[in-house]
Structures are given as C-alpha cells and as structure tokens.
Amino acid sequence: MSEMSKGKELQDRLSYQKKSYYETASAEEKTAIFDYARGYMAFLDAGKTEREAVEEGIRMAEKEGYTPYSFGEKLKAGDKRYYNNRGKNLFLIQKGSEPLDKDGIRILAAHVDAPRIDLKQNPLYESANMAFFKTHYYGGIRKYQWTAIPLALHGVVLKADGETVNIRIGEDDTDPVFYITDLLPHLAQNQNTKPLGTAFTGEDMNILVGGMPYKDADVADKVKLNVLAILNEKYGITETDFLSSELSIVPAFRARDIGFDRALIGAYGHDDRVCAYPEMTAMFAAKDSPHTLLTILADKEEIGSEGNTGMRSRLLLDIIEDMAKADGVSGAAVRAHSFCLSADVAAAYDPNFADVYEKNNASMLSCGATLTKFTGSRGKSGSSDASAEFVSYIRRIFEKAGVPWQTSELGKVDIGGGGTVAMYIANLNIDTVDVGVGVISMHAPYEVVSKCDVYALHKAFLAFCRG
Ligand code: MN
Ligand code: MN
After folding, report:
1. For residue 437, which ligand has an atom nearest its CA?
2. Please, are residues 77 and 97 in contact by the beta-carbon 8 Å criterion?
3. pLDDT at 197 over 90
4. Pairing state of beta strands 105-111 and 339-343?
5. Is residue 298 a contact partner of residue 109, using CB atoms and an 8 Å limit?
C-alpha cells in the first residue's frame, strides 16, 4: 500500500464530499437495506391514499401495542397511543421518562396524501359509446404524465343513509383498470406544437370507465346506465351517492425494483410515504428512548396543508397542550423545548435535466438522508429556514449514530420552488428542519428513490428519537 499523499490527506480532512451509501455500507448493512425496502414497498402498495396509509399506520401501531388516545388522559412513561383524526391524519405518541416542560417532544412530521386525480361530485357521463368520469386533479401534477396508463379507483362513497362504502378497484390482477385517453401521434401535429403545460387541460382528464350499453331500446345514455347498474349491483350505490363521495384515481402500478442491480424503487407516491414509513419504523425501534416522541402522518400537504386534517389545523397544538395540561406543565414550555424533523422529500439531481439543478447543493441519489435547511421560492419566500444552531444539533446526532446524510436544496435559485409542512410547526415555536429522501421524477405517477436512502432515513429518524 502506498502512503496517502499530503494533499490527498488534507483534501479528505478538509473537504465536504458526498459518497454513495451503497459504496460505504457493509455486507450486513446491504442486507438490511434490501430487507427494509421490502417492508416499505408493501406499505406503498397497501396505502395509496391518505385514508389507506392512515389505516395501515394504525394497523402497524396496534401491532406494536399502541391504543387510542383520548383528550384529557394522563400518560405515563412508556405509554403508546395513537390519535386517528377522521381517518386521514394520524398521530402516534410514545411518552418518555423525561419531563415534558424541560425536554419537550421529538416530533416527526410527514404527509400521506399524494398528487392524484379526484372525481368531481357529479362525475359520470356518456359520449360516443363510452362512459367517463369528470375529474378535478389534486396537487401538483404534470397532466400529460397521467394519460394512457392503467389507473385505479380508491375512496369512499357515503350512501343516502350515511353508510360508508369502501372502493378499491384496479389493484388486484383480476380487477379492471381505468384510463385517460391521449391523441395518436398521427393526429397530434397541432398538439405537438403546444407548450407541455397547455397541451392538456384539467377538463381533458376524463376517465374512461365503460363501453357496454344497457340493453333497452327505450333509454338514452345506455353505457352510462349500464355502469350505474353495475355499481348499484356491486356496491348498492346510485348516481346521487357520488355527491357525498371522495373518490380518487391513482396509478394502478405496484412498487417494483428498478435496475439490474435492484438498487432503486419505482412506485406511486414515494412523496411522502418514503418519510411516513421510516417515521413509524424508527419510532417503533426507539422504545428505549427517554424522550416523548410524536409521529405525524398528515393530510392535505399537496394542496397547502389547509383544513382540519392538514398541518395548519390546530390539532397538533391541541394535542401538545392537552399532554402538557395532564402533566401539570406549561404547553408553551413544552413547545419551546421541542424539536421537529419535517419529514419530506427532496428533488434528487437528475443528470437528464441537469440545467435545473445546482449540483453542489442538490441531493444526490444514494448519498443518504437529505437535510434541507430552507425550502421556499425566490428569496426563500415561504420557508421557515432552520437556524445553524439547530442544524448543528441534528448534524451531531446524525454523525454520532453513523447516519449517512447530505444537505440538499430543491433546484437552482429562481427556477421554481416549493414548501413543506416545516413552517407550520416552526410557527408554534418549535425548532424544525426538513429531513427526507431525494426523489427522481417527483409527483410523476411513478417516482424513483434509492433503497439505501430510505434505510438511511430510518437510521436518521431513529437517531433523532434517541438523541
Ligand atoms: Mn409533494
Ligand atoms: Mn412532500
């Protein structure tokens, strides 16, 4: 072995360099990375909407001994509770031995809603021997990506008497799927000249749901009627019941390994289940933590975190105030001593679209969990911008636990931007910073992450829960 040159030694000691976690991981760690990915992929397939992800979260929590939390309850160290907010937003609580007003709460906050296509309230119509659903998309989507792919229907319909019917069609191999039509290249000459953002409008996103007429010479709209007859036979619903429904169209794809080496995962809705799942596994693994832990699976992040299931709701504050009151301490003191990792994804550097990234500060695939000090757009607008002191605290926790991590920024300055739930929690006087995983093709019907980054995030959250 030749001795390291002085310059090389100096460079190693003084420079910040990102390295692939796959390169540094031991053989055992590689096995752990791939094992962990299997659990995550099963979670992805089980929970494609916030309702399903919350249901899956409750199932996982109950397996770990969590029971429902009721307001006013006094928790003792080691107690494990969950709060199910309207089936769309979940809080998991593990009470620590440290006093709440001195030690605060370690909070992990991810979201479980994902960009998708919702049905309008009066969706069904017939045209040219086909039946369609009218839709209203949810969150930031690039509309053209959703055409000509297999789609599934998920959600609930509340019947006239208030009974809930759960619907999930297109996930089983024997299920039918749904579809948004697109133009054939032979006739796309005019469409091809339009900018991507205008070639396909929201009102064009009609879902093909049928093509068989009801056999009766006396009725019009026979294909529509036949669809209604099938729905009525299978679910006991009528067209009027759509008025009180919440139905979403999501890609019918399942999570799959990507690449010859299976290093990556392709799936719908990595954003932000790739943080929601590690939040829970880390919290379950941190049973020994002296700190009080709170994991949040939030709804509505993709449309601005509004409403009573989003992070701008008072509920987080209510839960903290309630726990403080039960312990006879000040809620303000609890919040002042709390920390939060706003768990959301970063845009991984994509060499195919290099011009939108600034490589030195972009998140690099497979280089570990991402820490994003600030988000926002233009001059950091809409960002809570974590303090250097808090970033230092998190950095020390990660490094002590050997967590592979990197810093990240969304893209080039002034080219776009985006935000997370970080500011809503920071606004409660809680130190908050974004930590997550770099995603390729974020918000596409099929997104890509690296398995080692997902595992790195589990390690990051576990270190935070224990630290
Ligand atoms: Mn998103
Ligand atoms: Mn997100």
Report:
1. 2
2. yes
3. no
4. parallel
5. yes
pLDDT average, residue stretch 112-134: 98
- Least Cα distance to 50 among 248, 242, 266, 316 occurs for 248
Ligand 2 centre distance from Cα of residue 301 (Å): 7
Cβ(252)–Cβ(269) below 8 Å: no
* Residue partners of 298: CB distance under 8 A and separation at least 6: 89, 109, 110, 111, 112, 113, 305, 309, 310, 311, 421
Separation of 378 CA from ligand 2 center, angstroms?
Answer: 19
Average pLDDT over residues 447-464: 98
Task: Provide the mean pLDDT of the chain.
Answer: 97
Question: Could you tell me the distance, in angstroms and rounded to a whole number, from the CA of residue 436 to the centre of ligand 2?
Answer: 9
Element (H, E) at 245: strand 245-251
- Note if the pTM is more than 0.90: yes
Give the separation between CA 147 and CA 114, rounded to whole angstroms.
17
Q: Which two tokens stand for residue 318?
A: 């209510």
| Alpha-carbon separation of residue 295 from 95, 267, 347 (angstroms) | 12, 23, 23
Longest CA–CA span in the chain (Å) reads 91
Least confident range from 198-202, 241-245, 283-287, 438-442: namely 198-202
Angstrom distance (rounded) from CA 208 to CA 121: 16
How is residue 75 written in tokens? 């928790």
* Span from the CA of 271 to the centroid of ligand 1 (angstroms): 5
Mean pLDDT on 319-336: 98
Joined together, the tokens standing for residue 368 give 């570990």
Q: How far is the CA of 303 from the centre of ligand 1 (A)?
A: 9
Residue 402 half-sphere exposure, CB side, CA atoms within 13 Å?
5
